[in-house]
Amino acid sequence: MQYSQLGKSGLRVSQLCLGAMTFGQGFHNIGVVAQAQADEMVRVALEAGVNFFDTADVYSQGQSEEILGSALRAAGVPRESVVVATKVRGAMSTEAAEGSGDTNNAGLSRKHVIEACHASLRRLGLDYIDLYQIHGFDPVTPLEETLEALNDLVRQGKVLYIGCSNLPARTLAKALAISAAHGGAAFSSLQAYYSLVGRDIEHELLPLCREEGLGVLPWSPLSGGYLSGKYRQGSPEVGRRNEFDFPPIAANAADALGPLEEVARERGVSIACVALAWLRQQPGVTSVIIGARNLEQLRDNLGAADLELSPDELQKLSAATQPPKLYPQWMIEFQGAARRRSS
Ligand SMILES: NC(=O)c1ccc[n+]([C@@H]2O[C@H](COP(=O)([O-])OP(=O)(O)OC[C@H]3O[C@@H](n4cnc5c(N)ncnc54)[C@H](OP(=O)(O)O)[C@@H]3O)[C@@H](O)[C@H]2O)c1
Predict the structure, then answer these.
(1) What residue's CA is closest to ligand 1, atom 16?
(2) N or C: which end of the chain has fewer CB within 10 A?
(3) 0.85 surpassed by pTM
(4) What kind of fold does domain 3-341 have according to CATH?
């Protein structure tokens, strides 16, 4: 396992992070892993060198945090050896989710951020969270209010680093400017959907993070299992995407499967392993958040830690789903080339 700096911070995280969204029950059809199996999965991940674990308060309404905290204790790993990340924003009661009441039990208000952090600490059984992330954009809370609440949690030592997820580039840029202007804690990382068949972040978010020194943590790196290749012949017997077609995949997604299969055959590994290795090796990517419903999938995915694809293999895979240049990027390149020629 190799380790990377999380953005500009001094924190070092394994290049594969274990995502705990499958831990617990009741989160769509994703939560399927009970405590005993989670204990094994966390132990196997630690043995493979994983020091980075990601969860969220909304994953099975707190169960994922409880199970992850318990599994880390069962593994007997020293607190200082692991980096635990969780998230806030989702609705933490049915009424809040439906918008029928309990209105403050969701979102990114100062009230909810502070209360949610205390609740996550209790469920995880920890006295600090290494990386506390906002789970997305909250249209009703000013960014300043959220950032001030996060900064207070950092100053109180309840949170060591802050991160964000699912923000558009313009909002992330505004948030970084607000933190800089106020001298407050700034986001160290972005957690975003990124896979060989979900490459939207390459347009704006990824260049922004590289320029500003934020760590990038891709979520759903197999696009919910699609990049294992098991949907190629239709619906597999067991598969999350059979009932929950998420996250969206590119219109030309199937074009990725041939080259993936070819590289996988040549290297004697699974298609999933190649898809994860491609992502781990993309410039700007810090740690790929892997997900698994069982030990077999986890072991398969952990193989991506040691699989170094050659420049030719990377290029062949990238070319299969290369996103078109969006305006104004193609204009910037066109004008830039002329400018460089004249200098
Ligand atoms: N910030 C956010 O908004 C956000 C959103 C989503 C996820 N995340 C984070 O990202 C982590 C990973 O996301 P994800 O679970 O969606 O990742 P993923 O790798 O895209 O999908 C994982 C699912 O794919 C299938 N799978 C995994 N490995 C496989 C293999 N080797 N062969 C065949 N099938 C395989 C399993 O589902 P089946 O067996 O059911 O097919 C597994 O549950 C989460 O745990 C969470 O920490 C964050």
Answers:
(1) 220
(2) C
(3) yes
(4) TIM Barrel (3.20.20)
